[in-house]
């Protein structure tokens, strides 16, 4: 039987969110490695874990925010050192259905054959968009397009981290998450690097999870834009620009896609999402820092 650990990255969560994600995973995995990036002084995660009494929870308390990528890498490393065959990446905003892990691992084994599979993950229904299924991105010429299959497993360009199951061998071959990104594009960058190395990333439309992006969503002419705190606009733009200029282990299609996305986000953040002036400042700073390779946490 495969040994699979969940890597749960937390950041100032509420007890309710922790209860939901832990309850939905505790009977489906071997261990849950909780890496806590929290910056509040309430010790919410520590207090909750002690009260929850989950003997599968193994916390790593960082006492400050070191970023999503660093936290994931710490959890992944802990699990691989303890002999995990697979890791499941998750955040605090996702609820997993019964038999989720069993069904996704079954799909992984059916798809494997002689292929090198980097990761397999579900479609997701996003809370702030009325729980509409979001589909997957695939390469289309020198750009990316979104597909919305309702069933089956499909080769895709990338997956969001939450719910993705990754075999240990792929992590050894491809490497861990790019820590200097801190947050945003971390999961997609890893998938794109995997593709450049000849690995397949598989999206499974038969399995759907409920997930939350940001604190809301704004309807625009082309669809929806997720709403985050203004500082996240800095990371979105900076990391996209950095990867488009310096991501030499990414394909040309991905790098063009990232550059165009950075420009689009700068315009959308600045024109349509309040507070617009702050989003302009963060976006311009992100653009410049991406070109100048000023990475890591925002200062």
What does this structure look like?
The chain has 299 residues and is an alpha/beta fold. Among the domains are: 1-92, Spore Coat Polysaccharide Biosynthesis Protein SpsA, Chain A (Alpha-Beta Complex), CATH 3.90.550; 216-292, no CATH class. Helix content is 40%, strand content 25%. The chain contains 9 helices and 13 strands. The chain has helices at residues 15-25, 44-52, 68-81, 100-112, 168-174, 186-196, 230-246, 252-272, 276-292; strands at 4-10, 31-36, 57-61, 86-90, 117-126, 132-133, 136-140, 143-147, 153-156, 165-167, 200-211, 216-220, 223-227. The strands form 4 sheets. A 5-stranded mixed sheet has the order 3-2-1-4-10, with helices on both faces. It has a 4-stranded mixed sheet with strand order 6-5-11-9, sandwiched between helices. Strands 7-8 form a two-stranded antiparallel sheet. Strand 2, helix 2 and strand 3 form a beta-alpha-beta unit.
Detail the topology: elements first, then pairings.
Layout lengths: L3 E7 L4 H11 L5 E6 L7 H9 L4 E5 L6 H14 L4 E5 L9 H13 L4 E10 L5 E2 L2 E5 L2 E5 L5 E4 L8 E3 H7 L11 H11 L3 E12 L4 E5 L2 E5 L2 H17 L5 H21 L3 H17 L7
Parallel strand pairs: 1-2, 1-4, 2-3, 5-11
Antiparallel strand pairs: 4-10, 5-6, 7-8, 9-11, 12-13
Q: Main attributes?
A:
299 residues, alpha/beta, Spore Coat Polysaccharide Biosynthesis Protein SpsA, Chain A, 5-stranded mixed β-sheet, 40% helix
Report the CATH topology name of the domain at 1-92.
Spore Coat Polysaccharide Biosynthesis Protein SpsA, Chain A
Output the structural class.
Answer: alpha/beta
Total helices: the number is 9
Q: What is the total tally of β strands?
A: 13
How many angstroms separate the termini?
Answer: 46 Å
- As residue ranges, the low-confidence spans are none
Amount of helix: 40-55%
> Which CATH class of the domain at 1-92?
Alpha Beta
CATH homologous superfamily annotation of the domain at 1-92: Spore Coat Polysaccharide Biosynthesis Protein SpsA, Chain A
Large-scale geometry? globular
C-alpha Rg (nearest Å):
18 Å
Main sheet: strands, sense, barrel: 5 strands, mixed
From N to C, what is the helix and strand string?
Answer: EHEHEHEHEEEEEEHHEEEHHH
**Strand order, biggest sheet?**
3-2-1-4-10
Tell me the CATH architecture of the domain at 1-92: Alpha-Beta Complex
- The percentage of residues in β strands lies in 15-25%
